[in-house]
Write a structure and sequence with these properties.
Strand order of the largest sheet: 5-11-10-9-8-7-6
Order of helices and strands: EHEEEEHHEEEEEEH
Number of domains: 2
CATH topology of the largest domain: Alpha-D-Glucose-1,6-Bisphosphate, Chain A, domain 4
GO molecular function, one term: protein phosphatase inhibitor activity
InterPro entries: Bet_v_I/MLP (IPR000916), Bet_v_I_allergen (IPR024949), Plant_def-hormone_signal (IPR050279), START-like_dom_sf (IPR023393)
Number of helices: 4
CATH superfamily of the largest domain: START domain
Family: Belongs to the BetVI family.
Largest sheet: 7 strands, antiparallel
Pfam families: Bet_v_1 (PF00407)
GO cellular component, one term: cytoplasm
């Protein structure tokens, strides 16, 4: 079984408290977190669909309704999860270090995790393929750049080959976006998608997901610490 996650938002001129009372409190059979657990709408492949609804303050005294839906499959194809990390480093400086100079900086700040990054083909743009050599339980992976948008601090890449994929995964794709955070800092949002081979059932436990998030956070925080220790770097 796997999980496919998507989110959407709807704005309204109605204040949050009033919208909450109508949309959630007084709505028949509808609660902020609920699941469809049985019925022909699930078909043959879905085990359940769960929803998480949140109503926040919006512009001009209105509200924003945010809904996250998780579709739990019986037959696996893609597993998706998301995580966020905050930093006191401004977005532009974090982008320069974390994305643009990652090949040089990451082996310096976390040599026990990543030993080296070597470009195999391409000029650093979309389609570039690199070999990442690890210092952990895995040996190496091939990493392909799928998208770069410096203006919006958005970066997409995929792991397309290597022992980290195991026997069941075809690839893992990542969508990274660095946004403005509180107090002049930044917020790094990452969406990870695990693509399986054929219809293999892949069990990625909560512990594995937590482990992946902790490693990503450790890398982000190591770069943050380096930038605080070297405040004159990456200011271009």
């Amino acid at each position: 079984m796997g999980v496919i996650t998507y989110e959407h938002e709807v704005t309204s001129s109605i204040p949050p408290a009033k919208m909450w009372n109508a949309y959630v409190i007084d709505a028949d059979n509808l609660t902020p977190k609920y699941s469809i657990i049985e019925g022909d709408a699930l078909g043959d492949d879905l085990e359940s669909i769960s929803y998480d609804v949140k109503i926040e303050a919006g512009p001009d005294g209105g509200s924003v309704g945010k809904e996250k839906a998780k579709i739990q499959n019986l037959i696996m194809g893609v597993i998706t999860y998301e995580h966020e990390v905050t930093s006191s480093i401004p977005p532009a400086k974090m982008w320069n270090a974390y994305i643009e100079d990652a090949d040089n900086l990451i082996p310096k700040v976390l040599p026990q995790a990543i030993k080296s990054v070597e470009t195999l083909e391409g000029d650093g743009g979309v389609g570039t393929v690199k070999c990442v050599t690890f210092g952990s339980q895995f040996k190496s992976v091939k990493h392909r750049i799928d998208g770069i948008d410096k203006e919006n601090y958005s970066f997409q890449y995929s792991i397309i080959e290597g022992d980290a994929l195991g026997d069941d995964l075809e690839s893992i794709s990542y969508d990274v976006k660095i946004e403005a955070g509180p107090d002049g800092g930044s917020l790094c949002k990452t969406i990870s998608k695990y693509h399986t081979k054929g219809e293999h059932i892949v069990h990625i436990t909560e512990e594995k997901i937590k482990e992946g998030k902790e490693k990503a956070k450790a890398l982000f925080k190591a770069i943050e610490a380096h930038l605080h220790a070297h405040p004159h770097e990456y200011n271009y």
